[in-house]
Backbone:
């Protein structure tokens, strides 16, 4: 992409509700536009990041045998009445023109359970070992939140990955739950999200026995987390008794004092048990031909919130830091000065494009400082600067961000193509 | 995928509202499940088809320089008031908890125009030649239809690709409109949708000057189309005066009688002009630094409806026909009889999987007829039958569907792997 053709606006005056660095970066960098309060449009640049995040999640879930599918955003209210959840507060209800009472689904336990009760007949249809099934979708969700906050961190409408497992027993659920927990850590690592820990979480509206949240430790977080430095205990404040009363709490496991931190929830997994499958009448025949009720788990990742978190953990509101898998452009070429530099930049650009590498090029006549500032906002991990001074020395200048390893500050002009390809291969997930 | 693990239900009793062959095939084949009236869940099998359709559309739009982005499903009613469209009948309105009047967007002209007015400043940001911009999204839409019909053909909730172009002049819009019209024909061809014609269409709620519909000629269609056999005139009934009054109409171009057909609308493109950009105050500076209002076009494809149409044009309600690009599985291997056949089938299966080819395998002990019936419903274009009788002759038996060319009925066992890879390459888009 030639930078002058990027359809983007660098906001100069930021709205007063942009109180976090990541929210300001999202607007300054032109990743999102606020269509309404808590309702965002993703620009072509922002959408590339969102898509890359989705693909990483998809690959890791497919790798553990989950199957992608898709459920409607709107559903009959009657399904929610079956489980007694028709009055939870984020549920947007309306009557459709044909007269049916409907809801915009804030989550899909009822919908997936209705689907599964129509399809599941035999244990043979539970393809994972031991007999389990895990269905997931990546979909826009709407929750009628009273207050939107911090851009992509708490929206009314957001992108979510929600997965639902159906298992033959609690033991089986437990083992699948751990497989998913490990997959989640792998996903956050590949996304380049630092400081994500799993903690004990309350089960809330969902019901069920055990729940974990994945929290990115951050001062902008809404959640209060307690962790123990002597043992492995860590939990959401809401799990602990009298949590409202005191600031210093005692670890229920080892008796030591707990440390208080703030976090942003980037995922949440639940052992639901038979709450939904029992009330909605799901059954299958086991190996002995006996009717059984499956045990259920559910597993969410806030896809657009992860995007918001990546912006929050970037350097500051002027510099986006993404790793190579997530970055909207992998390489950003800047030419400074004469035609010779432009020609060299264009040659490298065309080479990288033909190698299938998403590359940004800036050969405009803007001043160098402005070009670097734009590159900072776009966050390509590999930056190449072509200038007359460098050409004189037979080199191009390199800058990196979001990469784990160190690479040279310059490359010889005749080596730079191969070297960039090598760095990209070196960083593949 | 091993067929016994496919999470699917072959419906025996079909609902009484499944009145078209394609709707019955969608339910019998387990592609969709009805969550509510006009509200469908896509099974993992159905979702694969939907995804393949989306990818073809995405590739062809990217090839003509369109940029993918994403807009919210819910938006403030105030945006719709700016263009005076706040009372169109498929608009679902509600008040969100914070008090704002909101709508579920049935289309996104207002939303994209609001986005563009915030970003567009200069003609330089219109990257297509001559200066144009085309933004698109592939997204779930909800329209509060009074009556849902024929499964995926008319749903309340459906998957849509909607694109919006911003051009510097009517001439520029006209030339981009034709580029898009040609891209649409290319898309329908790659999707394997036969009998799609473009016809003159009414502009309706959208406003604007010229509109074309893409209609799949079909007896199950809701639209009445008139075509001339002497000249190139073809139009939706609604374009012609007095169309309600008579069954036989005269072509306004050549004076001959028009032929009446029925069609399913699978796409619709509009030259909107400045209806939205003017009322919502979009402007940019041209090369002379003068303020100009962009001219707009919009371009829709009903993604899930295309899926429905592909099922409608399949042989009958027992056999799905997809081409190689759209098919959920490319190859379907069936072994009949002894262990030797199973081993050979599994060997071929593992080879194709490692070559990255989505393959279904059926080595169950079901009777052959039932296996063939299942394969018919799944619609893999290449079917391989491994049986003791064939092995005796050193061959496997081949069956094909949805391919343009003819291929041999048998392959020698030691050649089959290479031959299948060749057929797949031969059919790549």
Residues:
């Amino acid at each position: 992409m030639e930078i002058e053709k990027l359809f983007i606006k660098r906001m100069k005056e930021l709205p007063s509700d942009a109180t976090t660095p990541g929210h300001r970066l999202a607007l300054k960098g032109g990743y999102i536009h606020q269509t309404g309060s808590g309702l965002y449009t993703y620009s072509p640049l922002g959408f590339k990041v969102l898509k890359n995040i989705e693909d990483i999640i998809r690959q890791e879930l497919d790798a553990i045998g989950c199957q992608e599918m898709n459920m409607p955003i709107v559903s009959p209210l009657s399904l929610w009445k079956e489980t007694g959840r028709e009055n939870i507060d984020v549920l947007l209800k309306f009557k459709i023109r044909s007269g049916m009472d409907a809801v915009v689904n804030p989550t899909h336990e009822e919908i997936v359970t209705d689907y599964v009760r129509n399809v599941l007949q035999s244990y043979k249809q539970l393809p994972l070992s031991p007999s389990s099934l895990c269905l997931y979708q990546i979909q826009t969700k709407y929750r009628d939140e009273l207050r939107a906050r911090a851009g992509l961190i708490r929206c009314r409408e957001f992108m979510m990955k929600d997965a639902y497992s159906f298992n033959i027993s609690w033991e089986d659920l437990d083992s699948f739950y751990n497989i998913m927990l490990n997959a989640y850590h792998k996903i956050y690592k590949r996304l380049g999200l630092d400081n994500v820990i799993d903690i004990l979480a309350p089960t809330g509206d969902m019901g069920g026995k055990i729940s974990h949240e994945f929290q990115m430790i951050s001062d902008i977080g809404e959640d209060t987390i307690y962790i123990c430095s002597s043992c492995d205990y860590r939990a959401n404040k809401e799990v602990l008794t009298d949590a409202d009363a005191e600031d210093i709490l005692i670890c229920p496991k080892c008796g030591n004092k707990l440390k208080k931190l703030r976090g942003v929830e980037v995922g949440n997994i639940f052992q639901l048990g038979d709450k939904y499958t029992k009330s909605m009448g799901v059954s299958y025949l086991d190996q002995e031909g006996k009717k059984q009720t499956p045990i259920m788990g559910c597993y969410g990742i806030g896809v657009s919130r992860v995007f918001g978190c990546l912006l929050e953990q970037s350097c500051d509101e002027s510099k986006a830091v993404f790793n190579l898998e997530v970055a909207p452009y992998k390489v950003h070429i800047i030419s400074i000065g004469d035609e010779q530099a432009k020609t060299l930049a264009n040659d490298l650009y065309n080479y990288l494009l033909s190698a299938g590498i998403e590359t940004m090029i800036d050969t405009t006549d803007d001043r160098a400082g402005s070009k670097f500032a734009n590159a900072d906002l776009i966050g390509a991990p590999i930056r190449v600067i072509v200038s007359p001074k460098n050409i004189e020395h037979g080199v191009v200048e390199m800058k990196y961000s979001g990469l784990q390893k160190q690479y040279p500050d310059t490359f010889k002009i005749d080596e730079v193509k191969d070297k960039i390809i090598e760095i990209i291969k070196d960083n593949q997930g």
